[in-house]
Amino acid sequence: MSGAALAANLGGIALFALPGLGLTELLAPARRLRLQHRLGYAYLLGVVAVGGSLFVGSHLFGVPLHRPAIAAATLVPAVLGLAMWVRRRPRRGTERPARLGATPDRGRAWRLLAGMVIAAVCLGPLASAVSRPLQDWDGRIFWSAQAAYMRAAGTVDPPVLTEAQWFVIHPRYPPLLPLAQVAVQEIFGAGADDQFYRALYVAFFAALLLVIHHGALRASGPLPAILASLCVALPRLVSFGSGGATSANADLALAGFYGGALVLLLEERPGRVAGFAAGCLLAGAVMTKNEGELLAAVALLMAASRLLRRRPRLSIAVHRLGWFVAAALPALAATVLLASWRAGIPNRDDEGYFASLRLGELLHGAWTRLLPIVRGAGRLSLEWSEWQGLWLVFVVVLLAGYRALKRRLARLMLLAGAAPLAIGFAAYAVTSRFPILMDETWDRFLLQASVPLAIVFACAIEALDEPPVKPGLAASS
Amino acid sequence: MGRRALRWVAFGSMAIYLAVAVTLALRQTFLRLRWVVASAGLPPEAVRRGVFGEPYVAAIEGIRRAIPAGEPYLISEQREYSLAWVRFDLLPRRAIDVRARGWRPQNCLQAQVRWLVVATGQNRPPLLFALPAGVPPGCPPAPWTGLSR
């Protein structure tokens, strides 16, 4: 590994973090976040902004995927954000501080120590990614292969995808991460064996942990939040496993997009700007993996439940509807764009779950395979070499802190965490590759569910810490 | 089990998990940092040789020299999935899968492909064969037929 390769890898992170910071400057709720949380959302939004612009430009307008287009996609949000920052400077003192800007000092030293451990853990995959070539099967087969074809052809619609004779596995797989990879490779002039894009994937790990910390902090308190973040950061699989940070896989990215959108939709005050930020993250989920469309729909359903919860005054109802529409529109636009892109690609070498899914088949498979799937889920979730017991601790803490589930937010997050697992269950019920597919993918669905489940975990830890409510007081409250 | 006992079980299991997992995770970080130190200053080819083995990297280099970046090749495999492993190292060259799957049509282009790569396994050197390719009757010559072999 050379210094130039390290610099290019870190530059690759900045390529998305800077436009993302610009976007968070433009979006008021994100602007008010603490710097570390803001960085997490900035990275995710930056990938959506740069990758999404390249997708639209290349697919709809034929703009080549070369440096000028990538520089424009990066610079426009960064410069707009900078302009907003300069414009706001005289007024910044009057801006309402973040609701969680000041947290009590209890356990500060422990929180600091936990933060340092998390930082050290993140250093592992980064060191691995910049010093070793890509050895992850799926990264080599799907995302990196798509990226190489797109870069060589200078378009998101390379002939390799659009002509049926070429060997491509899952040619219709959503192209956001390959486009992000192309952006890094092009900007830094990578050669055939230069893997300047590896840190791009590792940074999703850090962004995911920051989103978890933000969501858990809002839902519980500082100590449960840092404990939940630390617990998720530690398993070997998350750093070095298939779908983990050293791979070139899309599961951590999808987990970040889905989880970030859930936090903004369920924990932020409903407002059009917050809704739009969440919608951009959902658009990222749609453009990242096949499951992204379903997870975006789940997140929007959860958000809709907030609309129906009370019967507000007409003006408030209109305001909330605006929030929901602002969240739904980017996700819908991404779905349409993806459908348009897929329409030009003959499908081959693809399981095609959605195309072959029949309700009868699903119900039959769900019934006949119920026990093997449940047994497999238990076995894989408890696999020591991958998770080191995380999910066992999760269950124990949730059972002990069951009172957390009296909170609506915790129940919604638990439901949102179950969604990726339910998608996996449906796939296992109909696939002809059962149980191999389950062995290959169950851990990834757990990863995708990590943000909402970590927030539930934090709520349960908080509930453990609460004194029991006296019967008389409970009755009167 | 009372609530108090459950609470202690929960905190206890979390403490054990943290003690074990933090130790393992920090050890992994330490090992990876040692890789960084060991590979500092090495070119990517040298690192690839160290990880994938000299025979595999030499075979890939040979194929890259033989097949120009704009020319496609046919690919097959001796071990399942190994063709996807090898294809990655030959990107962005286009590949046509010629395993006996029976659904991909033979067409004008495939008959003019001049190379066959056979993947033999993960990190095992792939084999390269030159094919007696020609322009079939009624077909236009493929764009790469003008490239020198």
How are the SSEs ordered, and which strands pair?
The complex is a heterodimer of chains A (477) and B (149).
Chain A: H1 3-26, H2 28-31, H3 35-61, H4 67-88, H5 108-131, H6 137-153, H7 159-162, H8 176-187, H9 198-219, H10 222-233, H11 236-240, H12 251-267, H13 272-286, H14 291-309, H15 314-343, H16 353-356, H17 359-368, H18 370-381, H19 384-387, H20 390-400, H21 408-430, H22 436-448, H23 450-465, H24 471-476
Helix pairs in contact in A: 1-3, 1-4, 1-9, 3-4, 3-8, 3-9, 3-13, 5-9, 5-10, 6-8, 9-10, 9-12, 9-23, 10-23, 12-13, 12-14, 12-22, 13-14, 13-15, 14-15, 14-21, 17-21, 18-22, 20-23, 21-22, 21-23
Chain B: H1 3-39, H2 44-52, H3 54-66, E1 73-77, H4 82-90, E2 95-97, H5 108-111, E3 115-119, E4 127-130
Parallel strand pairs in B: 1-2, 1-3
Antiparallel strand pairs in B: 3-4
Name the descriptors.
heterodimer; A: 477 residues; mainly alpha; 24 helices; globular; disordered C terminus; B: 149 residues; alpha/beta; 4-stranded mixed sheet; 5 helices; 11% strand
The shape of chain B, in one word, is: elongated
Structural class of chain A: mainly alpha
Order of helices and strands of chain A: HHHHHHHHHHHHHHHHHHHHHHHH
- Biggest sheet strand order of chain B reads 2-1-3-4
Residue share in helices of chain A? over 70%
Biggest interface and its residues per chain?
A: A-B, 64 and 57 residues
Beta-strand percentage range of chain B: 5-15%
Report the structural category of chain B. Answer: alpha/beta
Summarize the structure in words.
The complex is a heterodimer of chains A (477) and B (149). By secondary structure, chain A is mainly alpha-helical. Chain A has a domain of 317 residues. Helix content of chain A is 74%, strand content 0%. Chain A contains 24 helices and no strands. The longest helix of chain A has 30 residues. Chain A is globular, with a radius of gyration of 22 Å. The C terminus of chain A is likely disordered. Chain B has 149 residues and is α/β, with parallel strands linked by helices. The relative contact order of chain B is 0.13. The longest helix of chain B is centred in the first third of the chain and has 37 residues. In chain B, helix 2 crosses helix 3. Chain B has a 4-stranded mixed sheet. Chain B is 48% helix and 11% strand. At the A-B interface, helix 5, helix 6, helix 10, helix 11 and helix 20 of A face helix 1, helix 2, helix 4 and strand 2 of B.
